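hey team, just a heads up i'm posting the complex here instead of the shared drive bc the drive is being weird again. everything in one block, sequence lines first with there labels, then the predicted structure for the whole assembly after. its two chains so it's a bit long, scroll down
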Amino acid sequence: MTLDEALALDAADPLAHCRERFALPDGVIYLDGNSLGALPRAAAAAMADTVERQWGDDLIASWNKYDWIGAPQRLGDRIAPLIGAGKGEVLVGDSTSINLFKLLAAALAARPGRSTILSETGNFPTDLYIAQGLTGLTGATLRTVEADAVEGAIDGDTAVVMLTHVDYRGGRRHDMARLTAAAHAAGALMLWDLSHSAGAMAVDLRAAGADLAVGCGYKYLNGGPGAPAFLYVAERLQDQLASPLSGWLGHAEPFAFEPDYRPAPGIARFQAGTPSILAMAALEAGLATFDGVSMSDLEAKSRALSDLFIALVEERCPDLTLASPRGSRGSHLVFAHPHAFALMQALIGRGVIGDYREPDLVRFGFAPLYNSFADVWRAIAVMADLLTSRAYDQPHFRQRQRVT
Amino acid sequence: MTLDEALALDAADPLAHCRERFALPDGVIYLDGNSLGALPRAAAAAMADTVERQWGDDLIASWNKYDWIGAPQRLGDRIAPLIGAGKGEVLVGDSTSINLFKLLAAALAARPGRSTILSETGNFPTDLYIAQGLTGLTGATLRTVEADAVEGAIDGDTAVVMLTHVDYRGGRRHDMARLTAAAHAAGALMLWDLSHSAGAMAVDLRAAGADLAVGCGYKYLNGGPGAPAFLYVAERLQDQLASPLSGWLGHAEPFAFEPDYRPAPGIARFQAGTPSILAMAALEAGLATFDGVSMSDLEAKSRALSDLFIALVEERCPDLTLASPRGSRGSHLVFAHPHAFALMQALIGRGVIGDYREPDLVRFGFAPLYNSFADVWRAIAVMADLLTSRAYDQPHFRQRQRVT
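-- predicted structure starts here --
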């Protein structure tokens, strides 16, 4: 494939116009939107308005005047169509870790007599850590098995199955409908972490019959560094579940200042303390980058970008070995290389931003709203040149530093 | 007292220059900094830089380049001198509610064989709600008694005493050193909620021997709506306590992606998930408004402002009854009035911003960095006029709306 052919794919891309919604820096090919989504152009003005006019001029009155108080549910309702949820089923706030704790604890309480949280060994570590923190408090057990063994491991003691839809490293995608059905067949609840799938593909929680989900606001949702996360509780379950992180904004009447906690009806009960309104404003600008976007177009483009990346790597970068599945996968890819760390540093030095994952993986994410086929072509051209010239093999590229 | 005399007090005020650090709207006397601190002038530029340059241009690299990763501890170290804590004893992130949950759970685990969280009946409701959520998970018990009875109620089953230093309604201030000593004498840990005191008075956790504390970033710390909160763990206790909200950023090696949680050394172990960097940037601007400010000047001004307010109310607004203590108290005051709600609405309509608290209280907060003696004089002039004319007694002022 030539660059002209890649540009022709961009010309035919129904999502090509979305790239203009982002302020991408010159000279950079950004393939790390799976770690931190790019800046929406509208975010700067939204933040300035929230800071200067809302906070500065209207001060405390803004909680009502600009509906700050409604942000967690308003933003949740904007995320809902991206993940196949209904109005009133999604709430924004806190971090993915905190939201996971709320829902795991609620799930355990809703399945009395069952004591196991079942997950996969390679799940994103914070998901396992949070489950460990909860089991340390409650006496429940976290059991982890290899990804392929999860379905067979669900049993009568399983209160909740906790899986990440798309694996953060290799990008393997679980069959959401099948595993949810398996959990239900055994009487367990099913909790999905959508951090690496929401905003990059056509997630359909309702079609899968999913019970619970959490996800990240700062990856494909473009909400800014450390953006508030979201949680989903199927409407049919909301009044049976309660959050142990029972802060005042989840109370039925937060401003009555009653001495005892009474959970609010519906999804609002999963709020805890007061959310950052500035962080909410940035996430709202991030969610607006999805306006008018069809989820099937999004998924098709994600697949086309990553398929093209694989094809070009295999044609032009034979030293790299695909370590992601060729079949069902998310919107990022990993490749093994003996000098993966130095290679990624050299790529970053040439303006191709991906990231490194232990022990020998380079990772590239494809954000369908702003990455182009030409981005893929140009990234491969840079990488092929580095590999051929071995220009990555220099001491300063080998120096480790912390990267999120 | 005349307005000229109030202006003379301002001229002699060692903190008068701090008012210029805030962008206060024209025509407003803002006496609600105890609910939402005013906008620091430097915040707008700090936010724009964080959004446009750091997030927009440098993207994922900013975690290292601008030390986003260090923000929770860096901001904690800036709060430390405001509350009498040392370097490495304060951490910023999450909400007050979430931080309270972390520390209450850690305290219970550190006092095996004891099962009671002791608090006061009138504590801020979210503190009680969070304790209720935790006891629901663990089988521990929350016991509440009237404020005066707390000291006598500490016993051999008390794992932790949880009190708010300054009461959110009436403003009563507890004797931190005395109650901490009483908790220790009974073998219990002492946890202080500093939400209504940090940034308004000379808090000295170390001098009091306090074990644990939490507090709010969006009141007197001027961190913006829903700003990240803080927590304090005395250095001597840090390695004995662990957070049950054990997210990846509290891990000893978050980027090693190990399957099992290992708490980081020191205060970092109380981090959970990824914090909002935009919210952190605003709070950092808020904390900079304290640069060069002596805590004893701060406390003296808080007292002088509120003493003057009481004196002028008693002279000019005899229909109001002081419902705050005359003695040890915080930086806000409440007064009872039979038409408190309508009176506060009328005050707000005339540009004097305080708030209403059930059932019949008007509340006024005094932020020593930006409130002036002239603010107090002018607020009283408006209130005296409203009370004399009964101009508050109109249907549209009686209409209730939700106010945080």
